[in-house]
């Protein structure tokens, strides 16, 4: 009743429908099965683990490709464990490079500078 008094009826109905449909809920997006296809570690930019602790029934590694596609894989697969290790090493090396003072500027020819008029 308090909602009806504060908001016009069409707006109150819209909010109620949005709540019942789960808009804005924090339900996890879980893998339902694992892929059996091999994937190269050069295509993977990151990964995350899912399981009962994250609200999902299936234990899986969710690989995120450079094209932002999600691939579910088995965490016990040796090839997937190697991909995870490669991603971890790549991230660790990137952090070390930035700490040593290496610039992240693009390599190649330097930009041509404009001539000053005298």
Explained architecture:
With 118 residues, the protein is of the alpha+beta class. The chain has a domain at 28-96: Beta Barrel (OB fold (Dihydrolipoamide Acetyltransferase, E2P)). It is 33% helix and 14% strand. The chain has 3 helices and 3 strands, in the order ααβββα. The protein has helices spanning 2-6, 9-20, 78-99, and strands at 44-50, 60-65, 70-73. It has a 3-stranded antiparallel beta sheet with strand order 1-2-3, with helices on one face. Strand 2 (60-65) and strand 3 (70-73) form a beta hairpin. The chain is elongated. Mean pLDDT is 77; it is low at 1-7 and 11-22.
Characteristic terms for this protein:
OB fold (Dihydrolipoamide Acetyltransferase, E2P); 33% helix; 3-stranded antiparallel sheet; disordered N terminus; 118 residues
Furnish the topology, listing elements before pairings.
Blueprint: H1 2-6, H2 9-20, E1 44-50, E2 60-65, E3 70-73, H3 78-99
Antiparallel strand pairs: 1-2, 2-3
Task: Provide a compact summary of the structure.
It is built from three helices and three strands, in the order ααβββα. The protein is α+β, with helices and mostly antiparallel strands and 118 residues long.
How much helical structure, as a percent, in the residues?
25-40%
Largest sheet: 3 strands, antiparallel
The fraction of residues assigned to DSSP E strands is 5-15%
Q: Give the low-confidence spans.
A: 1-7, 11-22
Order of helices and strands: HHEEEH
Q: Helical segment tally?
A: 3
CATH class identity of the domain at 28-96: Mainly Beta
How many angstroms separate the termini? 78 Å
* Radius of gyration based on Cα positions: 24 Å
Question: Mean of the pLDDT scores?
Answer: 77
User: Which fold name fills CATH's third level, the topology of the domain at 28-96?
Assistant: OB fold (Dihydrolipoamide Acetyltransferase, E2P)
Give the CATH architecture of the domain at 28-96.
Beta Barrel
Total count of strands: 3
